[in-house]
Amino acid sequence: MEFYRFDKETGRRISKYDSDFLMSQIIQTTQGAHIGCMYLEADGIIGYHQAVSPQILLIIAGEGEVRGGDNEYFQVKAGDAVFWQKDEWHETKTTNGLTGIVIESEGMKPSSFMTGSLNIPRSCD
């Protein structure tokens, strides 16, 4: 399990074509991708299972907890991204609600595009 950030603070200012905005790069795939939006309501859970392909979860609203195969939970919030390798066991849950975008594709390497890798994940007590 790897942690990244894609919040405003990790963005790069774009001014080309008279533009004025920030962009945080996320991923480039070399193969087809499945992209979905998941809405977890209060006390929602994406149950403990193995990833069928490499996948990255982008938290866009709310907060929750994730765990990998070691059963240690880590807090995540809007602007955080979590990457799991193919076959890696994982789970996502929330108390108050969470919205996330998931991208699943072979050959993804988020460290090539995403900045602000979290140095120390926020472990849940």
What can you tell me about this protein's structure?
With 125 residues, the protein is an all-beta fold. The chain has a single domain, classed as Sandwich (Jelly Rolls), CATH 2.60.120.10. Helices cover 0% and strands 48% of the residues. It has no helices and eleven strands. The strands form two sheets. Strands 1, 4, 5, 6, 7, 8, 9, 10 and 11 form a nine-stranded antiparallel β-sheet that branches. A two-stranded antiparallel ribbon has the order 2-3. Strand 2 and strand 3 form a beta hairpin. The radius of gyration is 15 Å and the shape is globular. It comes from Paenibacillus tianjinensis. This is Cupin domain-containing protein.
Count of structural domains:
1
CATH class: Mainly Beta
CATH topology: Jelly Rolls
Structural class: mainly beta
* SSE sequence, one letter per element: EEEEEEEEEEE
Task: Please tally the helical runs, counting DSSP H or I stretches of 4 or more residues.
Answer: 0
User: What is the molecular shape?
Assistant: globular
Largest sheet: 9 strands, antiparallel
Write the CATH architecture name.
Answer: Sandwich
Q: Short description, anyone?
A:
InterPro entries: Cupin_2 (IPR013096), RmlC-like_jellyroll (IPR014710), RmlC_Cupin_sf (IPR011051). The chain is mostly beta strands.
